[in-house]
TrEMBL record:
<keyword id="KW-0812">Transmembrane</keyword>
<dbReference type="InterPro" id="IPR032816">
    <property type="entry name" value="VTT_dom"/>
</dbReference>
<dbReference type="Pfam" id="PF09335">
    <property type="entry name" value="VTT_dom"/>
</dbReference>
<feature type="transmembrane region" description="Helical">
    <location>
        <begin position="69"/>
        <end position="90"/>
    </location>
</feature>
<feature type="domain" description="VTT">
    <location>
        <begin position="49"/>
        <end position="177"/>
    </location>
</feature>
<feature type="transmembrane region" description="Helical">
    <location>
        <begin position="27"/>
        <end position="49"/>
    </location>
</feature>
<feature type="transmembrane region" description="Helical">
    <location>
        <begin position="159"/>
        <end position="179"/>
    </location>
</feature>
<keyword id="KW-0472">Membrane</keyword>
<feature type="transmembrane region" description="Helical">
    <location>
        <begin position="191"/>
        <end position="210"/>
    </location>
</feature>
<keyword id="KW-1003">Cell membrane</keyword>
<dbReference type="InterPro" id="IPR032818">
    <property type="entry name" value="DedA-like"/>
</dbReference>
<protein>
    <submittedName>
        <fullName>Membrane-associated protein</fullName>
    </submittedName>
</protein>
<keyword id="KW-1133">Transmembrane helix</keyword>
<dbReference type="GO" id="GO:0005886">
    <property type="term" value="C:plasma membrane"/>
</dbReference>
<comment type="similarity">
    <text>Belongs to the DedA family.</text>
</comment>
Length: 226
């Protein structure tokens, strides 16, 4: 519980953490930001890392002269593209094997037809999904894994992987660069971070709940119903 509270406190005051880190360790902050973004996008077990706020705060520190804007953008772009690529490759290597394992316990939960449908979806609409997922916490961590598991072609994935990463990094870093040091925004940054996360996550959750609620209703009003 204490660890969770410490993590929440870190997310809400990430600007203070980075400020202290820069004062103590200087250029090592680039390595830390690179590693956090790479792990958040590359490892499905770490979707909770604060990627969005880090990009914004990094841009703010560039505006104050404590970090180099060009170097930060290049490093974060490499981290974002590389992390997604790793996640995709893990999904491509593990996904089909899990679905074809014929393990009795897994047979109850895995739907091979659903995997094929997912593959078809990613071939048709996966590009938009990969790009838009960049801006939705948690979803951006799982999207490349699912793309790999559904066997989306690598060339198609990499095209939208790069486009999504470019938009994500440039938008958030430059927003931080131009607006991150405005006193009002700096003072209420924790609130802004929470509102931003909520604005991205809530519609996704509501959409998922709506689909779950519609399925029983559709089943009741099917051809056999009266």
């Amino acid at each position: 519980m204490d660890t969770l509270l410490q993590f929440v406190n870190l997310v809400l005051h990430i600007d203070k953490f980075l400020g202290v880190f820069i004062q103590q360790y200087g250029a090592w902050v680039y390595a830390v930001l690179f590693l956090i973004v790479f792990c958040e996008t590359g490892l499905v077990v770490l979707p909770f890392l604060p990627g969005d706020s880090l990009l914004f705060i990094g841009g703010a520190f560039c505006a104050s002269g404590e970090m180099n804007l060009g170097l930060l953008i290049v490093l974060l772009l490499v981290a974002a593209v590389g992390g997604n690529t790793l996640n995709y490759l893990i999904g491509k290597a593990i996904g089909p094997k899990v679905f074809n394992s014929h393990i009795p316990v897994l047979e109850r939960f895995l739907d091979r037809a659903a995997l094929q449908k997912t593959h078809n979806f990613y071939e048709k609409h996966g590009g938009k999904t990969i790009v838009l997922a960049r801006f939705i916490p948690v979803v951006r961590t799982f999207a490349p894994f699912v793309a790999g598991a559904s066997q989306m072609t690598l060339s198609r994935f990499q095209l939208f992987n790069f486009v999504g990463a470019l938009f994500w990094v440039l938008l958030l870093v430059l927003l931080g660069y131009f607006f991150g040091n405005i006193p009002f925004i700096r003072q209420y940054l924790n609130v802004i971070v929470l509102v931003g996360i909520g604005a991205a996550v809530v519609p996704v959750v509501l959409g998922a709940l709506w689909k779950m609620l519609r399925k029983p209703a559709a089943a009741k009003s099917g051809p056999g119903s009266r």
